[in-house]
Amino acid sequence: MDLQAIWFFLWGLLWAIFFMTSGFDFGIGTLLPFIGKTDEEKRTMIASLGPLWHGNQVWLITAGGVTFAAFPVVYAVMFSTLYSALMLVLFTLILRGVAIEFRSQQDDPRWRRIWEICIFIGSFAPALLFGVAFANIFKGIPFDADGIYHGNLLTLLNPYGLLGGVLFVMLFLQHGALWLTIKTTGTVQQRAAAVAQKAWPVLVAVAVVFLAASWYATDLYANYLSYPALFLVIGLAVAGLLAARLFMARQAWIKAWAASALAIVSCTFYGVIGLFPSLFPSSLDPAFSLTARNASSSPLTLKIMLVVVIVFVPIVLIYQIWAFKLFGSKVTAADLAHEEGAY
Amino acid sequence: MDVVTLSRLQFYATSAFHFLFVPLTLGLSWVVAYMETRYVRTGDETYLKMTKFWGKIFLINFAVGVVTGITLEFQFGTNWSGYSKYMGDIFGTILAIEATAAFFLESTFIGVWHFGWKKLSAKAHAAVAWLVAIGANFSAVWILIANSWMQNPVGYTIRGGRAELTDFFAVITQKFAVLQIFHVLSSAFVLVGFLIMGISAYHLLRKQNVDFFTRSFQIGLVCGLVGSLVVAVQGDLHAKDVTEKQPVKLAAMESIWETTRQAPIYLLALPDEENGRNAIELLPIPGALSFLGHGDFNAEIKGLNDFPRDERPPVLLTFLAFRGMVGLGTFFILVSIWAFFRRKKLMESPLLLKILVFSIPLPYIAIQLGWVVTELGRQPWIVWGMLRTADAASAVSVLQVATTLVGFILIYSLLGIVGYYLIIKHAKQGPQLEGA
Fold it and tell me: What pLDDT band is residue A152 in, cutting at 50, 70 and 90?
């Protein structure tokens, strides 16, 4: 593989890790009003992601930064054409971030209620919008040779785009519910397990419809038909989903969560592989599409960035896994009793 | 208003707001790590209480700082896609390295530090505090390298209609970046020093937790005194570098219109941009500007009138911002020295303590003014001498930028009010309710 192709897949990998890690944060935030009935239950849910969500969110910054560094033209055109959608993602992420910190600062139900709403919106909206954005990228975005967008926010809310949004929401919902089953006990764990089990058939149905709709709405399958071995990736996504259900039935929650992570990563790669070598296809004319070939940085920059990523990403993964293990045990009443134990 | 103006306003609002929180994170991260290390070394419980009290201010401040930082990374693409296409090969690389090599460290370990008190040994927990400080400060280092490149582009070539990297080492080690990094980090210590002295003074005036706040005060004093002295010496070197690399910015900073040898600094001046002269010029210090710019009283300083009009920054604001910053910097040195001589008799120095309480916002203002000089003084360029700001904006609609500008103002006002309300509430409460 040449540098540009390597960078194309690294780009996909960073987005996949972002969805795999922040995915459960978004899921738990979305479930907050449904699983958390009392203040203690809500605090338990927030505490389950408390020490980790900051680090998880940096994968977004890295994915964005790497898009900027390796494919500056894609970064410029993608971010300006998807302006309104991205700004909505940004506003809601900002609210979620401070809400997690602010909620516990005052012991007043109305105060806490405000920030809970922010956590919910700041989790549900980005999950939905990332799905909508990526589905639209799979489909192609109406932009011209100068990278000027011919559409508006509603253009993105087409049936296929919305289907992508629902798929992301369901993937993250299950991912978050499974994280809760690992990290909590009692009623929160029971409710989370029930949600994961009930969400599963819906998720599978949405995934099947999405795979089928992609046949009609996108060109994703062209690469798969040229190299049928690639269908293995779709196989992995299916295997991840099936395994998640199997492990759920056995109450092997960690394995079920890992299977869900596999499903999210394979779903991301399903799209990324289908796109190759295009990163940001134009629906107006394929000649306008931005690809790993026509939109990348110079070879020197790609080389420097490759060294940076090869050195630092494994280091980051090592200390993040260490942090995951350090906070791997269940959230306890003792944690909640202390402001140094939980938000 | 057009898209460029609105995008500039938007970037000004979001970056200025972000930078209300950054310096405190930079400086306080070291101070908290130091306090916790003292606790581990000496077993003195007061240091543990200090770590927790100042650490909580750090955490609230960090929360607002981090969410508003994401905005800036997005905006290069959303609002400045012309810039991103042209500069991404270099600028994007620096931003991506910042995230991978520094920001991950800070963000991962801040969670560990926040919730890891019972999970880690005391030593390991203190070590985590140092990792947070290193991550936070290296984040700033990378961002300032990127900003310095916009001020003084090096290590590149223009190829295929964009700037391409040719010498990575030159980009990350250039003098402009080194000077700017020291300027920002030392000013962060001034801010933290005055914040700690100010909050401590508030409690000392009320005779609350006297031991705790006297000892905190001493730490704040070291930060404030050393920081304000370093910032001044280093600021002088920085000004000489600007004189060499951005002479028109220096001329605007000092409102010098005619090229002269033995250029003076007027203690009182008011630029008249229309007519290319100063409306008021009083109390000159002969040769002072030549000396500041070149280390030689006879050196020539090029005046604004010898630069084309369309290459001059807005003079009045750049000039006033620079004056304000330098004036405040002088004030910080004087107050720090005063505090140094009264450090053993704080309780008998109510006037000093009162002044310190009211001085808390001043380093914030000085730092904001410094950025106005740097960024407004760079206009009309987005990258010095290479790309004009007017040519760098995205092809988005006025409505989009205007709507999001209003959105940012609303959301950021909310964050600012709540964030500072919580910090002030905690600061006033003092450590006794911490349940250390």
Answer: confident
**Euclidean distance between CA atoms B49 and B46, whole angstroms:** 5
Chain A: residue whose CA lies nearest to B167: A300
Burial of B171 (0-12, 13-18, 19+ CB in 10 A): buried
pLDDT in tens, B277-314: 888 888 888 888 999 888 888 899 999 999 999 999 99
- Do B215 and B275 lie in one domain? The reply is yes
- Residue B405 shares a structural domain with residue B346: no
Cβ separation B96–A146 shorter than 8 A: no
State the total domains in chain B: 2
What's residue B436's pLDDT? 39
B188 and B337 part of one domain: yes
Is B434 a member of any domain?
A: no
Which residue shows structure tokens 């199997």?
A: A246
- Locate A213 and state its tokens: 């709709």
Are B118 and B248 part of one and the same domain? no
Q: Give mean pLDDT, residues B317-322.
A: 95
ipTM entry: 0.91
Owning domain of residue B15: 1-173+398-428
Q: Given CB atoms, is A326 within the 8 Å cutoff of chain B?
A: yes
A232/chain B closest Cα distance in angstroms: 31
Same domain, B417 and B372: no
- Does B435 map to a domain? no
Angle, vertex CA B271, rays to CA B267 and CA B277, nearest 5: 105
Q: Which residues in B lie closer than 8 A to residue A83 (C-beta atoms)? A: 78, 394, 396, 400, 404
